[in-house]
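To fix ideas, we give here one paired sequence and structure record:
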Amino acid sequence: MSASAPVSNPQVGVIQGRPSTFAERGVCVPFTTPILAQARIRMDAQERLECLLPGFSGGKGTYVFGWKALPEVIRITLHDRALHREILETKANAPDTIRLCSLQVAARGFAGLAAAAQARQALALDRDYTVLTNYVFVLELLKLVGTRAPDLLRAGLDSEAMRQKAKAALTRVAEGFGMVPDTLYGRVEELSTLLTPLGLPQAPQPGRLRQLMHRLEWFRDDVAAWAVTEATEAESLARFMAECADQTLTIAAARLARVDPLLGRLRPVVTGEEKTLREVRSGVTSLSWLLDGWDYICQHWEDSRAQSDDVQRLAMCELFRIAPIIPVQELAANENFDMDDLRRVQRRWVRANQDWRTGGLDYDAIRRIETVKAKLA
């Protein structure tokens, strides 16, 4: 099917307005086809995957069509075909599972050598950080029963020897907690995997989501400063993006303020107090959904800052199109922005990444997206 007539496909629909929940907003998918950059995926009412594409072909609202039909609606890159197939086969539809699919596809070289190397490094860092989180868990738990295990420091961070020493050390903790050692060790491993994206507040290195929050602070401040000196209509888009980032950070800080005290008192977490475990799981999961999509936005903006004013304005228009709008249930819709007017500004500035008459791809835009992808972990 030609990409020039998407609405003629009966599988395509259009939705307007702010999503009510994170599940309705969907998860960002790091495609390299320009018009699909940061498109979102979600489950429909029949538990089928569907694709959400804001501002499709410069239009108003968000286009929705079945995930399976995506290659029929739009001409996509080889990388995107591989990623589309991986997601379809695994039915991934959460931030962490989509990220894993993306890294595994990129690691096979579909987005270029630089992105492949970065993806392999990111997967290795995830594994190492899970081990680090496990290690910090053990040390903190040993403190609770008044003992130490200095020999843990001499084992390699990701070595089997460290795992065995940690398991032996946890035997002493389990005795103090009145738990079966294998049950405690299984709980620690489960929690270490759950907390890998965030990390423990006691950890020597912050987790990926904590690092993203710091980067989002930079984005908010830099974009707000850029808006002050910008003389074109792109200034209004920048103010909107800075406000979106600020609202996201406010909610994220509130979530961390609830989760971190729980992680500072590990005994109820590892002994399985249901209310505490539920709050920890909910806090980590909601932070993943809340911050979804902002890593790409921060990197795209950082890359544009070294280029001309016009490139920065066009980048701002693209970021406005894919802005991670906070759902209604997370934040009351009280922004002082005229969204229709902002969309008109964006359409005047943005250049089409796809030639809708021929269905041709803009390979310069593809390379720019692949450059951003190569820098993301």
